[in-house]
Every structure is written in structure tokens, then in C-alpha cells.
Amino acid sequence: AIISGGKGTAADKIKALNAAGIEVADTVAQIGETAVRVLKKTGIYEKCHTC
């Protein structure tokens, strides 16, 4: 989520995303591992990994 116009904090937006079932990486360095975790959780990783 983009924080703009001084509306909402990063913590508020992360909380809202998590409440909607969306995983959020805590840092840029964790984006890859977060993506792999989500792909594995949904079963997509195995399908893509075998292509």
C-alpha cells in the first residue's frame, strides 16, 4: 500500500492488508521469501517449479 497525502500510517495499512489475508514483507530483503512462502501455501509454487 502506498502512503500518500498524510492519510494512514504504514502500520495501519499493514494491519488492514493482514486483516484481508494479504501477507506483507517486513523489509525489502524479505520480499522473495515472503513470495515463495505464499506461493507454497497456495500450491502455486509446485506448479511453477515443475514447468
Our measurement of the CA-to-CA distance between the termini, rounded to an integer number of angstroms, reads 31 Å
> Strand content of the residues, in percent?
under 5%
Which class do the helix and strand fractions yield? mainly alpha
C-alpha Rg (nearest Å): 14 Å
Average pLDDT works out at 87
Fraction of helical residues: 40-55%
Q: Order of SSEs, N→C?
A: HHH
* Total number of helices: 3
The count of β-strands is 0
Number of domains: 1
Sheet with most strands? none
Shape: elongated
Instruction: Point out poorly predicted stretches.
Output: none
What is the gist of this entry?
The protein is mainly alpha-helical and 51 residues long. It is built from three helices and no strands.
Description:
The structure is a single chain. With 51 residues, this protein is an all-alpha fold. The protein has helices at 10-19, 31-42, 44-49. The chain has one domain (10-49). The chain is 55% helix and 0% strand. The model has no long low-confidence stretch (mean pLDDT 87).
Topology:
Elements: H1 10-19, H2 31-42, H3 44-49
Give structural attributes.
51 residues, 3 helices
